[in-house]
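FORM 7B: Structural annotation worksheet

SECTION A. Query
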Amino acid sequence: MIKKTNSTVTVDLSKLTTNIDSLEEHIQEGTRIMAVVKADAYGHGATEVAAHIENRVGGFAVNDIQEGIELREHGITKPILVFAVPEKASASQYRVHNLTATVSAFEHFNWLPNGTSFHLNFDTGMGRLGFLPDEAEKISALISDHPTLFCTGIYSHFATADTPSSEQVLEQQSIFKEIRSYFSDELATHIANTGATAFYDTKQFNMVRLGIGLYGYPPGKQEIPGISPVLDWQSRLVQVKKVAKKNSVSYGANWTAPRSGNLGIIPVGYDDGLKRSLSDKIKVRIEGNIYNVVGTITMNYCMVYLDGDYYEPGTAVELLYDKNDATDWASSIDTIPYEILTSINPKIRRNYEN
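SECTION B. Predicted structure
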């Protein structure tokens, strides 16, 4: 893949380690971590993240087969669970690359080739993929009817664990515990995500799935002590020009200069993951000074009003940084940090520190 040179994402691996240390304080004895590295590790770079933490976790989770194959090709040996629904055309790849499939519908038993390992997925209240709770006994019998397939785990998804004190979490936990009673005690068993791990004292079984928390963000508004964002994003000024009072900037002419001053042009736009909806809503930092992004964000550029300040072209610009992270951006457009992080174009170069 040809890398873009207009900006750089920096991933501090030492913070990743610290985040695991902090989250482990919430993990019950005998419980292993499944690190969720789907969507290129939430935009952080799956192969590098997985390599750094492989000795700290029991396995990994990805969304699709291609993500799992990429990890194997980069030397990752721990178990890898694929969340996606199996497809007939690619089912052979699970065994070829030693990947664990997800079985969430009856027909999947007939699609997977002999020798494939799988985890069962039950819908306990998420309302998405998975068997229904009252199908547990029938599924247990189906496993016996398919001795050439190897069931190695069972899981479900909480729908509201990002919020502490949710009654639905407790309800789902109870349903999952009942489902679990139909299957072997030796199976890897997981329902707790970052929120459930940090905010609830419910049974974690023998595995928890940590995703957004690894990368330094809580799943909702409630903070998790000890974790901090792993990723920063930097660019540079490519041009600084004068802008007269009341002159407009960018498409739509929606912003006009309150007084004559300087305008900085940054070569980052929505093609890079800087969402157009963030127009006029975020700030950047230049040499310690904070400036507003003004006017409509375009495909390849955004603009900052420097007022009377001036910087030479080539001066570094901090987009995402310690006091202006993905949570700040997300809250300004009523979304979540997940969306901000996974929107950053994978063609942007990632630098890894520590």
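SECTION C. Observations
The first helix runs from residue 13 to 24. The chain has eleven helices and 19 strands.

SECTION D. Sign-off
Analyst initials: ____
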